[in-house]
Structure to design on (104 residues):
């Protein structure tokens, strides 16, 4: 589902949640007009592909946590997640930057 929060890096993400635990997944976007990048939810066509991938369940159980007092769940980029579950990642765009994953 799309999750809205007041995270310092993004305002919306794709949240995979189960039994009160969750994992936010974000994808970088590019605004042609302003030439700026921003983080947001992942492409809709990816949500089920990732969820149904054989490595996702184990990754989720290992990394998902309960929402903290600020309303944040742990966050990972879609590219980091795809590499971790051994799923072929999307083509990297030249405007993409790196997001250091830190447990929130």
């Amino acid at each position: 589902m799309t999750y809205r929060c007041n995270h310092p890096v993004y305002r919306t993400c794709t949240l995979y949640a189960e039994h009160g635990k969750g994992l936010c997944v974000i994808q970088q976007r590019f605004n042609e007009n302003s030439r700026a990048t921003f983080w947001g939810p992942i492409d809709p066509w990816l949500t089920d592909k990732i969820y149904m991938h054989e490595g996702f369940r184990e990754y989720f159980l290992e990394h998902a946590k309960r929402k903290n007092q600020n309303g944040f769940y742990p966050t990972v980029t879609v590219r980091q997640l795809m590499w971790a579950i051994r799923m072929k990642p999307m083509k990297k765009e030249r405007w993409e930057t790196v997001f250091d994953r830190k447990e929130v």
